[in-house]
Amino acid sequence: SLYEHSMKSPLIFSGPGVPHGQSDALVYLYDIFPTVCDMVGTEVPQGLDAASMWPVISGQKPTIRETLFTAYKDVQRSVRDDRWKLITYPQINKSQLFDLENDPDETKNLFGQSACQSHSDRLLAAMKDWQKKVGDTSPLASDTPQDATFKAPTPAELMKLKQPRKPKKQNNKKKSS
Fold first, then answer.
1. Measured between alpha carbons, how far is 120 from 147 in angstroms, rounded to an integer?
2. Which tens digits make up the pLDDT trace of 89-106?
3. This model's pTM is above 0.85
């Protein structure tokens, strides 16, 4: 899931020289490596896509990036900034837009509302730019979308699912030489 309850993980740094505090800066787990390098005074290797969180931790900057991108297989993409989050479901041609400041539990989908169109457009453009940058070729929409409705299995289908599977027949034929 790309909802906040699944994506937002606490990260705690503690030690000499680490100030007490809390931040809502947008970071990735792979930002930990350059952060630790900065904390211990080791040079950060060139070519990393990651960014050190040390400027945020030490109070030098409020954030290290403006947007955060996440993906789940080829079925979901999301991009968020400090207030807004867009989630796309390419296989069913659906999108969701959430105002995280006013709806932190992501219960009110604002996608398609004219008052929020500029946020949808801005985040969708950022998502396309990110896909191009990282080589993500998954489409954000489908020419042949799947049915988005959940259909509960019928009682007969449930009974079939409960039946033990038949073992596969093994081919015991010997090869002739």
1. 23
2. 998 999 999 999 999 999
3. no
